[in-house]
Amino acid sequence: MRQQGPRSYAECGVWILASMLSVPVSAQYVDLEAERAAATASGRAAVSQESPSSARTDPYGAQPAQTYPATSYGVNTAPAAPTAAPTATNASQPASSRMAGSELGNLFLQVQQLQQEVMRLNGKVEEQAHELTTLKEQSLQRYIDLDKRMAGATPAANESIAATATVSPIAAPSGGSAPQAGEAEGYRAAYALVQGRQFEQAIPAFKQFLQRYPDGQYAANAHYWLGELYLVLDPPDLESARQSFVLLLSQYPDNPKAADALYKLGKVQFLKGNREKAREYLDQVINLYGGSNTAVVKLASDFIDQNY
Amino acid sequence: MKRLHIFLFTVALSLMATTVRAELTIEITQGSDDPASIAVVPFAWQGSGAPPADVAEIVDGDLARSGQFAPVARVDMLGRPTAEADVFYRDWRAINAEYLLIGRVSGVNPVRVDYELYDVLRQTRILTGNQSGPASEVRMVAHRVADAVYEKLTGVPGAFATKLLYITVDRKDGGGLSRLTLSDSDGASPVVLLKSGEPLLTPTWSPDARHIAYVSFESGRPAIYRQELATGKRQQLTNFKGLNSSPAWSPDGRSMAMVLSKGGNPDIYVMDLASGQLKQLTRHYAIDTEPTWMPDGNAILFTSDRGGKPQIYRYDLRSGATDRVTFEGSYNARPRISQDGRSMVMVHRQEGRFHIALQDLVTNRVQILTQTDLDESPSIAPNGSMVLYATKQAGRGILAAVAVDGAAKFSLPARQGDVREPAWSPYLNR
Q1: Taking a contact as any Cβ pair under 8 Å apart, which residues of chain B between 187 and 246 contact chain A?
Q2: What would the pLDDT profile of B328-373 be if each residue is shown by its tens digit?
Q3: Same domain membership, residue B167 and residue B89
Q4: What's the CATH code of the domain at A212?
Q5: Do A120 and B308 touch (CB under 8 A)?
Q6: How far apart are CA B378 and CA A24, in angstroms?
Q7: How many Å lie between the alpha carbon of B190 and the closest alpha carbon of chain A?
Q8: Closest C-alpha to B32, from B406, B378, B417, B416
C-alpha cells in the first residue's frame, strides 16, 4: 500500500521525499507544505520540480477526470501506467519478474481505482447524510416556528377577526398617496390567518378586504382564497366556493390564479355531484393550459384518472 | 512494540540558545472598526541609570495589535502623569481617550512595574496592579501588564505574555538552513532552538508549555523529537519506517497523537509518552493526517481524504466512531481548536485559493477570515482571540495574524528568509 503515495497531501509529500524514491511523483496531490519542504531540501530539487505551481492551486481538482476513466475497469483495457503507482510497483520488482509484475501492476491499479471510487462514493454518502440531517433540522425548526405562531395567535382568536379587519383601514393612508401599501398589508394580514390555519377567521378577513379594495391588485387572489377557504370548512360551503371561483374567472380571466380556479371549479362541481360538469371544467383546464401551466394540468389529469 | 528510542544529539546539529536580532517586525495591516481609545502614558523610571525597557511602549504595542484598542500617540498627550495625583481627566477627555494607563518602573533585578488604569468618562480608577520579574524578562513583565489591562477592559484574559514557535528557512542557493525559533508573542526576543540543514516541520507545544515537539529530517528521514525548553534536552520519540509526523500533545500532557505510515499508509496513532506504547486510532487506506485534540481530551480531529477530498473528521476516543466535521467546500484541512472547544480554525479552499476559515462547532457556520492566498498552518491564541498563520507576501513566507472575528490583522514579516509553521504557546506559568 505504500505505493499509493501520489494521493498525498500535507506531510505525505515529505514522506515520499524521505523515502527517496526517485520515481516521478504524480504531483497534482502534493500540497503546499509538502512542496515547501521539498523546496527546502535543495539537494532533491528533482522532487520539487515535479510539483508545478498550477497543480498546487488545485491539488485535488484533476482527480476525477484522471482516476475514473470508464474504460479502466477491465484488466485488459486498463490504461498503461497513468499514475506513479505502477511505476512504483515495477521499481520494487526485480527485473526478471517484470512480466508477472505488469499483471500485478494492473491488479494493483484496479484496487487503487476501486479504492478511489469507494472514497468518492463515501464522500457523497457523507455529504448527503449531512444534507438530510440539515434538512430534517430545518423542517423541524419550521414546524416549531409555525407551532409558536399558532400558539401565539390562539388566545386572541376572537379578537383577531376584528383586529385583522381593522388593520387595513388604519394602515391605508387617507391621503391615498400609496394605496397599494395599505392594500398589500390588508392582504397579508388576511393571508397570515390562512398560514396560521385559522380558516374560519380568514373568511371574514378576506371578505372585508374585498369590500375595501374590490378592484385592487390582490382582489383575484382574495377571491381564490375565499373559494379555497369555503372548501376547507367543515362541512364545506360548496356553493360559496363555486361563486368565488366563478367570480374570479369572469372578472380576471387572465390572472395567474385563473387556471387554479378553473381546476377548483371542476372539483367543486364533482363534490356537488355534477360529474359531467366537473369533467367539462377539467378538460377545459387541460385544453386551455396544456402548454403553459403544467402543474395545474397535471392535477386536473390526475383527478380525471382517479375519478373517471 | 519497540522500546522508546532515546538518545541525545550533539553531532551534526548546533543546539543553540543564542539570542539573535529581532527577526520579525510587526506591521498592523487592518484595525478593528470601533477600537477603544486608550492612552498609555510613558511609565516613570524610579531607578538609576537607563531604564531597562520602555514598558509603556510594549503595552501600547500589545493593545494596538489586538485591534480592539487604538492607543493615543504620545505627541497628542496633554500631560504625562505617572501617579494618581497628577491625573486630570479633562486632559484626556479633550483628546477623546476613553481609558488611561499610567505606571512606574522600579528596581533593576528583579524589575517591578506598578500600574493604574482609569476610566476617563466615569472618572474612576478601575484597576491597580503590579508585575515583577528578572531583568532579562522585562518584556514579559510588560506583556503581563498588557494582559491584565486587556482582561479588565474586554473580560477575556490577554494572551500577550505568551510565546511563539516558528520555523525560518534561509533562501540561499544550495543550502536552505532551517531554524526552529522561539519568540515572544510580538515577535521580539527570538531565540534559535535548533538549526538544521535538513527540514524541520510542525513544531508544537506541550500543554504546560515546558516542552515542544517537532519533526526533523536530520537522520535523513522524518522523526518526531521532544525537547525540553529549559534545558534543551532532546529525545527522539519515533523512528519508524515511512512517515513520522504531526505530533500533537493531549490536553493532559500524557500522550501524543501523531501520523505514522509504518502500517502502509498514513494513519493516526496515539503514543503514551511514559511507556512509549502506541495505539493505532484510524485504519483506512485513505490518508489520515494532521491530528489535533479537542480540549476535553475526548476526541481527536484530523484531516482525511477518505471522502475523496481532504476534509476534517472527528475521532471519538470513547466510542471509536469517526464523523465528518466539515462540509463546506472541497478542501478543509489542518484543524486547530480554540480552548473553549467552540471554534475550529482550518485551511479552507475557496475558488482555488487557500484561506484561513473559522467554523463554529455548534452552529457549523463557516467564516473565512483571510483574503490572502496560500494561507496555511493556522494556530490559535490561548485566549481564542487571534489566529496566527503562515502566508506569502511578495513571494516570501511570512507570519500573519487575524482576529477571530476577522476584524483586525497584523503581519510579522521576517528580515530574511521564509517563515512558516507558527505555533502559539499555551498560557505560560499557569
Answers
A1: 198-199, 201-202, 215, 217, 220-222, 242-243, 245-246
A2: 999 999 999 999 999 999 999 988 899 999 999 998 899 999 988 8
A3: no
A4: 1.25.40.10
A5: yes
A6: 31
A7: 22
A8: B406
Please check whether residue B224 is in contact with residue B43, taking contact to mean a CB–CB distance below 8 angstroms: no
Tell me the per-residue pLDDT of B156-198, one tens digit each, with 9 for 90 and over.
999 999 999 999 988 765 567 899 999 999 988 899 999 998 9
Residues of B in contact with A67 (CB under 8 A): none
Q: Say whether A7 and B305 touch across the interface (CB within 8 A).
A: yes
Q: Domain containing A14: what range?
A: 2-92
CB spacing of B305 vs A9 below 8 angstroms? yes
Q: Do A60 and B178 touch (CB under 8 A)?
A: no
Residue B266 lies in a domain: yes
What SS3 state is found at B119?
strand
- Cβ distance B305 to A60 less than 8 Å, yes or no, reads yes
Residues A174 and A303 in one domain: yes
State whether ipTM is beyond 0.85.
Answer: no
Query: Residue B149 sits in which domain range?
Result: 34-154
pTM comes to 0.64
* B149 and B172, same domain (yes or no): no
Contacts of A60 in chain B (CB under 8 A): 305, 309-310, 330-331
Q: Is B315 helix (H, G, I), strand (E, B) or coil?
A: strand
Q: Do A2 and B303 touch (CB under 8 A)?
A: no
Q: How many CB atoms lie under 10 A from the CB of residue A56?
A: 18
Single out the residue in B106, B121, B154 at which a domain terminates: B154
Size of interface A-B (CB pairs under 8 A): 130
CA distances from A171 to A166, A174, A175, A181, B153 (A): 8, 9, 11, 8, 47
